[in-house]
Amino acid sequence: MLLNPGLPLTRHSLSRIRAVLTAVSVPATAVSTGDAAVLIPFCNVRNVPGILFEVRAKSLRSHSGEVSFPGGRADPTDLSLMEAALRETHEELSIQPDCVEVLGQIEPPELNLRGDLCVYPFIGFVYPTSSAILQPLSEHDPLPSCDLELIRASMNPSEVDDVFHVPLSELISPSRLRPSMFRGSRPYWAVNVF
């Protein structure tokens, strides 16, 4: 097993995640308005490893009220798609880019149904503070936990209605998994997060 879902994430855990992520061909030139990026934010909350999800604000024009990862369209000022994912995470959840250790990307990126937007997913670990990244820990010491209530208190209410943490043990529970087909052609596992 790649990770023990019952134990907090450690530097060793992050190394193992980084080792299995596949590099994606990211445009070498400036990102286009047809590109978007999301961050899949791993973190420990009260020493429980998991992933942060957000509920998009009901006032938004698209995907309102949906559960999502932080992210969105790239801006012309973004130097990379990774920078776009980190900028959007900061705008939505007030998580500073220097509090995120980016571990890699998932491939392949997919075009939306209209064919005008390609979403690039990045995996990262969220630290409670930027100085926590620099703490001298052994490979197997638990990484610092984020304060979910602090993130909730700091999130942007014009973009996000809620943020929540789903433990890894819940995400891999057979009761939450169901087989599905992406656009009817490619199998994948869907996960019920509620």
TrEMBL record:
Transmembrane stretches, start-end: none
PANTHER family listed in its UniProt record: MITOCHONDRIAL COENZYME A DIPHOSPHATASE NUDT8 (PTHR12992:SF11), NUDIX HYDROLASE (PTHR12992)
Necessary cofactors: Mg(2+); Mn(2+)
Pfam families in the cross-refs: NUDIX
Keywords: Hydrolase, Magnesium, Manganese, Metal-binding
Organism: Tetrapyrgos nigripes
Nudix hydrolase domain ranges (all copies): 32-192
Protein's name according to its UniProt entry: Nudix hydrolase domain-containing protein
One GO MF term attached to the UniProt entry: coenzyme A diphosphatase activity
PROSITE patterns: NUDIX
4Fe-4S listed as a keyword: no
SUPFAM superfamilies: Nudix
